[in-house]
Specification:
6 strands, alpha/beta
């Protein structure tokens, strides 16, 4: 799993596919944490009441009920058995308690993500929520598409939630920039096999044709182990990076640093390149870390605020 020493813009130039995380990469963590998740917590009870007889909600309730049964059997904290009476009010109250418990534990389970996505769809359509996308992201998307690159999203949030965020963003409908979307149905984002599956689905000759941009180092190492090129996003509120991560990957604070258009501009200089990997013994807990020069200053490590999900979600690190 070797990496060349070319500058970060060369990595972008050589990639045929750009794979983007959402939370902390294209979208602020505060949007997910302070708008999307609170909306679900605040509205889930009323949403279930209003849509209880809809076929979609019936499927969501059935899937959540099965998940709750599994969680209770496993003794997971925050899980509560559903009432045996089947009375609507009692069932909804129990489902709300379990949804809150799952969200407290930052669970990435499919039934929760599906319900969240359906709730967010209504919120976007009604104008209660508008997707946040950093100002520097849109010019990068325009440039990459002009260069003939395929752009994909990989987020722990459902594909539907991803499309809602970018389809109702503060910059308008951005969906036309993307060639496709991946969520955790392809696998967990901290599992290198998930990235191998993505490479296979993209029909790339190798993982090195794909540049993955994320703010979480576990995801960075997993993607690198699958052979992908990796750049780590350092934004306000992203989780601080370990020295092993800083030594292994380029870091950026804006997509401007990835621009191909004006290498002589006064834009921030790219971080120092990674050295080639020195062997399997230097991997960090199997995550595929390659040894390299220190890149980025103390400020590149971000703030100490932790991400609440996933989910990345609207995920949506």
């Amino acid at each position: 799993m070797k990496r060349g020493k070319a500058c970060v813009t060369s990595i972008v130039k050589d990639a045929s596919v750009i794979l983007l995380d959402i939370e902390g990469t294209t979208t602020s963590i505060s949007f997910v944490k302070n708008e999307l998740f609170p909306y679900v917590r605040r509205e889930v009870g009323q949403y279930l009441q209003r849509t209880w007889d809809n076929e979609e909600t019936k499927r969501d309730v059935a899937a959540l009920s099965r998940q709750v049964e599994e969680d209770v059997a496993a003794g997971l904290a925050g899980s509560q058995a559903l009432p045996s009476t089947g009375e609507r009010e009692a069932v909804i109250a129990a489902l709300v308690a379990n949804v809150e418990g799952m969200m407290d534990a930052d669970r990435k389970v499919g039934p929760l993500k599906a319900l969240q996505g359906h709730m967010w769809r209504r919120a976007y359509q009604e104008g209660a929520v508008e997707g946040h996308v950093y100002d520097d992201v849109v010019p990068a998307l325009e440039e990459w598409r002009a260069l003939g690159k395929r752009i994909y999203i990989y987020s722990s949030g459902s594909v539907e939630a991803q499309k809602l965020l970018f389809g109702h963003s503060c910059h308008g409908d951005l969906l036309h920039f993307f060639s496709g979307h991946f969520d955790t149905s392809v696998g967990a984002k901290v599992d290198s096999q998930s990235y191998r599956a993505i490479v296979s689905q993209l029909q790339c000759g190798s993982g090195e044709e794909v540049l993955f941009i994320t703010d979480l180092e576990k995801e960075a190492f997993a993607a690198a182990e699958a052979g992908m090129q990796v750049v780590v996003s350092v934004r306000e509120g992203t989780t601080p990076l370990t020295q092993a991560c800083l030594d292994s990957f380029y870091t950026i604070t804006s997509f401007v640093e990835l621009s191909q258009e004006d290498p002589d501009s006064t834009s921030p200089s790219p971080k120092k390149p990674r050295l080639e990997a020195k062997g399997e013994e230097e991997k960090v807990k199997g995550d595929g870390e390659a040894d390299g020069h220190k890149n980025g200053s103390e400020k590149d490590k971000g703030t100490a605020t932790e991400k609440e999900e996933g989910g990345k979600e609207a995920v949506q690190n």
